[in-house]
Sequence to fold (242 residues):
Amino acid sequence: MSLLRDADLSAAFDLAAPSYDRMVAANPGYHGQLRRSARRLALPDGGSGLRLLDLGCGTGASTAALLAAAPRARITAVDASAGMLAKARAKSWPDRVRFVHAPAEGLAGAGVTGPFDAVFAAYLFRNVADPDAVLAQVRDLLAPGGRLAVHEYALTGRAAHRTVWTAVCRGVVLPVARRAGNGALYEHLWHSVVEFDTADAFAARLARAGFIRVRTLPTTGWQTGITHTFVARAPAARGGRA
Ligand SMILES: C[S@@+](CC[C@H](N)C(=O)[O-])C[C@H]1O[C@@H](n2cnc3c(N)ncnc32)[C@H](O)[C@@H]1O
Fold:
């Protein structure tokens, strides 16, 4: 199956936006796992004085997790899908949270400029056409030593985890999604995870992109071995690796 990319992917997310929150509410642990990944940024002092970026914020689930981890920070939340963003904007947020409609590949053009003290990206990277280019941009948007947390479906490479993922998609996710008219997006979800980096490969990708102190952290529940948090830091000096 060819994966959805760019405008086709945004159109599929636009279509799925009205039912997206219901779909994730049926996923045990979805919000708790996002909150744990955001906490893994270990932002000091409730984020006081910090500028944070939530890249691929969707309907705001990851933004809410970031806000819970850093209630005093200023947060810019960006998404390429107008439909997902409309759902996010319709929720209640403090003034310190702002939403921007832009692709991750075109942040500067939408007025999203750094430096950011931390970037959170949940379920984004397996969706972008060129993850290396987006990672390079994220690295450049971060302040020296700035923090990155990526929360992503990235399989371990073990057959058992791949089998669980396929069983969940075939047995639960796809039947529900097809009934809601969103089969194409959730077929993409299934295959994009199978075709994306393993957890080790994504950690290596982060290191190749110049991030330092890269760590891969597990999740619990049915997502064990399927979803991971990747935390890393931007180099302390621009262009440097330490
Ligand atoms: C699976 S949703 C996750 C949303 C949210 N982060 C969460 O945790 O619930 C992925 C989101 O990434 C957005 N997205 C995908 N590719 C993108 C890109 N190239 N630039 C910006 N947003 C993108 C989609 O529109 C979608 O809202």
Notes: Helices lie at 6-25, 30-39, 61-69, 82-89, 131-141, 159-179, 183-195, 199-208. The CA atoms of residues 24 and 203 lie 26 Å apart.
